[in-house]
UniProtKB/TrEMBL annotation:
Protein name from the UniProt record: Serine/threonine kinase-like domain-containing protein STKLD1
Lineage: Eukaryota, Metazoa, Chordata, Craniata, Vertebrata
Cited InterPro entries: ARM-like, ARM-type_fold
Assigned EC number: 2.7.11.1
PANTHER family listed in its UniProt record: SERINE/THREONINE PROTEIN KINASE, SERINE_THREONINE KINASE LIKE DOMAIN CONTAINING 1
Gene3D superfamilies xref list: Leucine-rich Repeat Variant
Source organism (scientific name): Helopsaltes ochotensis
């Protein structure tokens, strides 16, 4: 009430945020702090020029969201809050250190479908792409932004979405190329590429280089089960769209994609999610006669029989 009575006084908002932050370590205060997220965000939006207030507000929101996720509480922030966060992103788009924190906040917020929808409505996607272009080498920013892109792009298909995502493929591919050896970022970028493939954001000239890039990600991070799963699902989406992608997997210049699939299966024998993704990819590939003949010659039936024996009830 104290903060809401004096929106225009920056010092009041700063003191209010600092006082709320003092309750963070008190577990019994958590349910009350949850009700303050809108007040904190609106204070940030009202005093957008004050970087100190932005940093303190963002730090507090991150801590509240972290506790919420730990306790399985999903926070569905409304459109006005999403709009405030977007204005903050735009106002401080050159401040790499603060953006890194803010993008982490956006990633945590976008875990909620309602919040993701509201971020999409206020038009945050072009801003995310712009941030990725500008800070391509920043590990934390790339990880967070690709995760947000995944959350926003994976929603139900609609025409507006495809327009909003225009230009997302080259940026996301550049992130994956830049961070191929950084497992967490590569994993996040593979998920974003999967979402872009599902949304039909690729053209004929994109299938081969995107498939090759995804295969590179699998080769460089073979031990990461989630990356392998999402990378295979992204490849399956590409193959569903075009035979070019299937041939790119078979004829990749760095080695047979089929051998890579076999190797990934051996590495993740106990992972049903990986096995399912591999099966989905192979199921898409056998829709093309020429590809199926090649897969037979590479004894894929033996691999499928092994998976079937391993997961007889799945």
């Amino acid at each position: 009430e104290f903060m809401q009575a004096s929106w225009d006084i920056e010092e009041v908002q700063a003191k209010g945020i600092q006082h709320l932050a003092s309750f963070v370590k008190d577990k019994s205060a958590f349910p009350y702090l949850l009700t303050c997220t809108e007040v904190i965000t609106l204070a940030m939006g009202t005093h957008i020029d004050s970087l100190d207030l932005q940093v303190e507000g963002c730090t507090l929101l991150l801590e509240i969201l972290r506790q919420a996720l730990e306790q399985g509480v999903m926070m569905a922030l409304d459109e006005s809050v999403a709009s405030c966060l977007l204005h903050t992103v735009r106002k401080h788009s050159e401040n790499e250190e603060f953006l890194s924190m803010l993008c982490t906040l956006l990633m945590m917020v976008s875990a909620s479908e309602v919040a993701a929808e509201n971020l999409r409505k206020v038009g945050i996607i072009p801003d995310l792409l712009s941030i990725l272009r500008r800070f391509l080498r920043n590990y934390k920013i790339c990880f967070s932004c690709c995760a947000v892109l995944w959350s926003l792009a994976v929603s139900e298909d609609n025409a507006d979405q495809a327009v909003l995502l225009e230009g997302a493929l080259p940026v996301t591919s550049a992130v994956l190329q830049e961070h191929l050896q950084s497992g967490a970022v590569a994993e996040s970028a593979c998920s974003a590429l999967w979402a872009l493939a599902l949304q039909g954001c690729l053209t004929d000239s994109d299938y081969e280089p995107t498939a090759a890039l995804l295969l590179d990600a699998l080769r460089m991070n073979p031990e990461r089960a989630v990356l392998v799963k999402n990378g295979c699902l992204a490849l399956a989406s590409l193959v569903r769209l075009s035979e070019i992608a299937a041939l790119a997997i078979l004829l990749d210049s760095k080695g047979s994609g089929i051998e890579l699939i076999k190797e990934e299966h051996r590495l993740h024998l106990g992972e049903p999610g990986v096995a399912e993704a591999l099966c989905l990819l192979m199921n898409e590939m056998v829709q093309y006669d020429e590809v199926m003949l090649d897969m037979r010659s590479q004894k894929v039936e033996k691999l499928l029989s092994e998976i079937k024996l391993q997961f007889p009830f799945s």
